[in-house]
Design a protein that fits this description.
Length: 290
């Protein structure tokens, strides 16, 4: 064997030895790729639900479910991340596969391959509560507004699902900073549930679908929100909104039982308020010293 051939053999042996030097607790390249893809998909769900930027501690159980799906522990994943970051060439190849898989998933999403069908809503009745115009257009001459709305309906009950759907385009020339849409359920006891969805001033038509469930047993006062909300603007507008719908999904068969539950909660709430006012109005008589 020539000197050059021996050198090549030694290099191959060295590379194989390095590959086999992986600690036992470190997962394989393929498994790491699968885990990271699922975590990116989970982040996509958080973004869609408007909870991407809440503290990670509140999302920990969801990340744990990803690890459980792949039959690995958090300790294994953490150890694997440390090993891969110390082997950047290896990690780069893994992430190339991750990016390719995510792009493939995004392509499938764009062509409607993952059309969501929520079987929990099959027994729900629905009604469109949006009675306002379905189309809005804002130009440089328009007065800046977040386009707030507030919808009331006596039929609103706990357990209702509210879907705010619309199409929107915000031109790059629009001066909004970090635009977003917000949907809120306001309860009679002063509490509320909200969901926020990020928007983009990139000149592209986008479809939005915000979903929010009334979880409180208090009476629903209204459903409100705002289009074109942002963290700041300079007064120049260029945006369009159309096909607006605010759909209420509800279980008609449970109306009576839910109404009784809400009435009971309301009575309890007002009794507490009344008791508080009564207690605060009582003045303890002072004793007169003789």
């Amino acid at each position: 064997m020539s000197k050059g051939s021996r050198l090549v053999v030694l290099m191959v042996i060295f590379v194989l030895a390095a590959c086999n030097n992986r600690p036992a607790e470190v997962i394989s390249d393929e498994q790491m790729c699968q885990v990271l893809v699922d975590m990116h998909k989970l982040d996509g769900v958080f973004f869609q639900k408007g909870i991407l930027y809440i503290p990670d501690s509140n999302k920990e159980k969801y990340y744990q479910s990803v690890l459980k799906k792949h039959a690995i522990t958090k300790a294994q994943f953490d150890s694997s991340m440390v090993w891969f970051t110390r082997n950047p060439d290896r990690f780069e190849k893994v992430y190339e596969s991750v990016i390719q898989d995510v792009k493939t998933i995004q392509t499938d999403v764009n062509r409607g391959a993952y059309h969501v069908f929520d079987t929990t809503l099959t027994y729900y009745s629905k009604v469109n509560l949006w009675k306002k115009t379905r189309h809005y257009e804002f130009t440089a001459k328009s007065r800046r507004t977040q386009l707030r709305f507030n919808v009331t309906d006596r039929q609103m009950l706990m357990g209702d699902v509210y879907l705010l759907m619309f199409r929107q385009i915000i031109a790059p020339s629009d001066s909004c900073i970090d635009p977003y849409t917000v949907l809120t359920i306001n309860y009679a006891n002063g509490k509320s549930d909200s969901i926020v969805h990020k928007a983009y001033n990139d000149g592209k038509w986008r479809k939005f679908k915000l979903r929010l469930t009334a979880k409180s047993d208090a009476q629903i006062k209204s459903v409100s929100g705002a289009f074109l909300a942002s963290h700041g603007y300079k007064g120049k507008m260029n945006a369009k909104i159309d096909s607006v719908a605010l759909v209420r999904l509800f279980d008609a068969t449970a109306k009576d039982s839910l109404t009784k539950k809400v009435e009971k909660a309301n009575q309890s709430f007002f009794q507490r308020i009344f008791k508080h006012k009564t207690d605060s109005s009582v003045v303890t008589p002072t004793k007169t010293l003789k």
